[in-house]
Amino acid sequence: MAEDQPLSQRIQDAGVLLDILDHLPTSIFAKDENLRFVYSNDAHCAMIGQPESTLLGQSDADFYPAREAADFLARDRQVIEQGVTIEVEETATGSSGITIPVLTRKTRMMTADGKRYLIGTNTNLTELRKREEQHRALAQTVPVGVWQVDETGVTTFANPRFMAYLGVDTDELPNTDVAAMLGGARQDFPGIASKFETDLMSSTGDQRRVLVISSGWLSLSSDGLRSAIVSVVDISEMTQLKRVNDEISRLNRELADNMAKLKDAQDEILRRSRMAQLGHLTATVAHEIRNPLGAVRTAAYLLERKLKDKNLGVEAQFLRISNGITRCDNIISQLLDFSRSRALQTEEIAVDEWLARLVSEEAEKLPAAVTIECNFGLGGVSASIDTARLSRVFINLVSNASEAMVGKGDDPSKFVVPEPRISVTSRLAQRGIEICVEDNGPGMTPEILAKVVEPLFTTKNFGTGLGLSAADKILRDHHGGLDIKSSPGEGACFTAWFPLRQPISEVA
Questions:
Q1: What global pTM score does this model have?
Q2: Which domains does the chain possess?
Q3: Residue 10 pLDDT more than 60?
Q4: 3-state DSSP call for residue 158?
Q5: Which of 4, 18, 34, 327 is most solvent-facing, going by the fewest CB within 10 Å?
């Protein structure tokens, strides 16, 4: 710290420095000319097993056995009196009685007023040696050749993989010109950091393509000699491994594709099976119900004419008969429509104008409590669609949304939400036209959402379970689809989408 700084600032800076030293993981201590402790950081106190308050003013003789203390003090006097720096491995026994190997470094520091101090550090060698053993064991087992050589050309380490690459044993290694085998004519190898590929011919005649990486000369020891660490990677093995991995990846992709095709085929078989069952059911219903249903309609009509204006109070009963017949007829029509497969009857039409008319007509049939909001964003965009069939899609989506919120709409106490609202939005997307019908109703659980488009599945006590199935089929016939998003209590959003144009081969 600068001598011209204010005393308060110098004291503050010294306090900060001591706080830093106290928290370093390395053991640090200082002694005066009489070799008594004047400073000990937390790590040094922990190693000796004494707090700083006990250490200060004491010497090594107060804490270590006599023989150890004598050795410590003799080296300390050499540092204080001769100004030499000493680095030595010692064994230190603290007050706990545990003896540990340490690497001690001591040097002398002179202050401006001529006072001499000894500054020392201790490094616990137990952990360092453990790490060294771990690193050596790792180097012995890694699938990479490792070679360490000093500046005199003497090999200080070579792992088994490296020896196998050279094709020599431990006794033959000193007589082998390893640098020439790896570096060829390179004069700078291994002293300069480098990375290159070369063909390595072993003493047994095996040849392999290898990647050689040299660290260049590094100061790795205290004897003054530098060493280089060279890694050798067998590229031919890596190439073979990459070829195997590529083949496995290809087979996995093929397997995934085949699994997807199998699932699609299973889904199609299941769908066709259901369609076949539904077709059989439809034929039965049409034959067994529609003909007698026509007779009931005719009989009811004739009875109504005969009893009209006779004030018998049977008008409500005739209305119920008429509504029941209409409902049964609609169910039969839905079954027939769902089971049939016919070509699209398309026409070019401005979608927003057609959708606006459709929603307006349907809104008049809904309970007055239901509000419909329209956000048409297609402008004048037109598309080639079967308007009759797509009309049934959106009529079904709007009526389903209304029924989910208010049921039949004749009892406000049974409304699911106080302000039932339906929004119809159209937009142009990358895949074609998207029309969203969204409500603020009760939403659906994941279990219901997974089954909602399956034929004959319904949660209504008055539904057929064919509305959404038919809508999904009509959209798929238009090469589009139906996306559904819903969570309990958060309403539902049905997004119908289809391309602007239909394949000519599928248009009647």
A1: 0.43
A2: 7-127 (3.30.450.20), 129-239 (3.30.450.20), 241-339 (1.10.287), 347-506 (3.30.565.10)
A3: no
A4: strand
A5: 4
